[in-house]
Fold:
Amino acid sequence: MTTPERVALPMTVPAPGLPARIRIHEVGARDGLQNEKAVVPTAVKAEFIHRLAAAGLTTVEATSFVHPKWVPQLADAEALFPLLGDLSGAGGIALPVLVPNERGLERALALGARRIAVFGSATETFAARNLNRTVAGSLAMFEPVVGRAKADGAHVRGYLSMCFGDPWEGPVPVRQVVRVAKALMDLGCDELSLGDTIGVATPGHVRSLLTALNDEGVPTGSIGVHFHDTYGQALSNTLAALQHGVSTVDASAGGLGGCPYAKSATGNLATEDLVWMLQGLGIDTGVDLDALTATSVWLAGKLGRPSPSRTVRALSPSPAPSPEE
Ligand code: HMG
Ligand code: MG
Structure:
């Protein structure tokens, strides 16, 4: 039997009622790498981000200005960010960074960051574990951050974690998520990213949260979705969000990811899997799938294990069998 040729691209068959263009918010260099135990050299991170930009991604979350002891992998933010200067000038790409507090904001602004993201939690347990604060305490911590960033002309994203379930508290009521989401938006965030931190969401749940947010005055245009793929639901959930009109989707090259402070958080929706679906739907992303896949294969080589993305595996040459096989 002959080996079938790989299928290089999906056939384009548009579906009605979807946005014409999607902005992919690439989180591989931040969410993807923050969970890696072995420290990735700063030069590798810089090359990763340059390669993502060259593949056509226009929003590449670069790093976090958090306490270095809390996320040691991203302790090199001061060294990394200046290496990206050529990407962020006129006509360049957006390089958002995570900032939990005023100390983080000062560090980010000092390096010229123009897009920041605060990151809240819909549940008390994760707020305590991830930020050492209550939900109310974390919102109070973010208030001056958002105020100062906006006064400085920066764009502010508000992440909200545990929107669909929490590993310690279980199901999270939609009304509880909406209350904290509203509070984040009321601080002045430009954009809200709904985090399914542990990947438990399903499409009906996604629709119901989006509708509840709309009912409380949060417009779909200001909402992004951030799905982790623990239970293989990330792409179905994304399609449900697109059908609702969402046009900002977070994804991580190669499906890397996880959160060091949330047990059972695995990789994000893989950017390649997302691009494959969007190309099939005829939705413009501006991303070169081959260049992106090559980037994830290259990074997997640096990390020493294959990418979990199905699309990356399908598009890559098969690795040589290991001696045990
Ligand atoms: P804390 O221990 O309460 O901090 O941590 P503090 O305010 O009490 O300050 C203690 C010391 O830390 C002080 O130094 C501060 O200056 C210093 P000292 O006076 O003792 O010498 N400090 C800092 N140093 C550098 N940069 C800073 C900073 N802040 C304080 N920014 C804190 C509170 C928020 C700092 C800590 O909990 C933290 O850094 N947490 C970050 C956790 C994190 O990054 N988690 C992963 C990202 S969230 C995620 O992945 C979810 C997401 O993907 C969406 C989803 O999937 O759901 C976004
Ligand atoms: Mg995440």
Summary: Confidence is low (pLDDT under 50) at residues 320-325. The pocket of 3-hydroxy-3-methylglutaryl-coenzyme A (ligand 1) is lined by residues 31, 34, 64-67, 70-71, 98, 100-101, 103-104, 107, 119, 130-132, 159, 161, 195, 197, 226, 228, 259, 261 (CB under 6 Å). Residues 84 and 258 are 24 Å apart (CA to CA).
